[in-house]
Amino acid sequence: MILVTGGLGFIGSHTVRALTDAGEECVLLQRRTPQIPPHLADLPVHVAQADVADLDALLAVGRQYPITGIVHLAVALPWPVTDTDSVEATAGALDAFLNIVRAARTWGVRRVVTASTIGVYGFATEGALTEDVPIPLGHSHAIPTFKKITELLAGHLSDVTDVDIVNARISGTWGPGGHLPDPFFAAPSLAHAAARRGEPDLSGLIAPPHAEDALDLLYVKDTGRALALLQLADKLNHSTYNVASGRATSNTDVVTAINSVEPDFRCELPSAGDRPVSWLDITRLREDTGFEPRYDTAAAAADYIAWLRAGNQR
């Protein structure tokens, strides 16, 4: 059985579906009510009530279920973090990560796949980003800063324990169950506007969007499948993998894709001129797991809008 922390969440629920499609049973960790949500009720899953910050409760899950692998997606660092709770929040997040490794050792788990982020590369880069490019050490945002720390810890702990800890640097992800608004990119807000045939509300982004703004955008069903492949691969040759589409997608590209579904959709974004464009190289992921994205931007937009128009909320 594969333990998935954050398995009831956005990326987590799609990872669970991909794991069960591959023939695995999953245990989903839930801090609150241990209930299987309706969208996962058709799958061979179990829900255990525990908090990764509570080592005793976490270890008890392994006494109830035979855990053979862990995909750690739970967001342990609250954001935004205020001055009054920043030290304790950071300590709690680190303890949660270490508890996952403690549990893996106790249960004899061979591999932990843990979520990192495209944000560790920084925001002033250009071209294809491979996993071995130097990572900027400066602080820009709480989430990529914490992910850099846990990547370093993962490397150290993989060397000194018998647990293989794999960092998955997940690119910008959109699709069913996702954040609205996503503060970092406009695609989800654009899809929602198209689904309701209305005007997009882009006020929730941390910066005003422009037509040329681009990032490596991956549909969440592909994200979940890539994480499942990393967990289930017989052999991995690296400790860090980009989980991405391997291409840059601009806001203009998203609008064009949406127009193939909803021809009357209009969104005129201002131009910012030439900007550096980067994307994540997925050679490692392809070679070691056979992963290829199944959804291009047009297919992703069509699937997401259809899901929203079927009465789903996000």
Automatic annotation (TrEMBL):
Sorted alphabetically, which Gene3D superfamilies does this protein's record hold? Answer: NAD(P)-binding Rossmann-like Domain
Stored InterPro entries: Epimerase_deHydtase, NAD(P)-bd_dom_sf
- Annotated NAD-dependent epimerase/dehydratase domain residues: 2-244
Q: Which domain of life is it from?
A: Bacteria
Q: Which family does it belong to?
A: Belongs to the NAD(P)-dependent epimerase/dehydratase family.
Protein name from the UniProt record? NAD(P)-dependent oxidoreductase
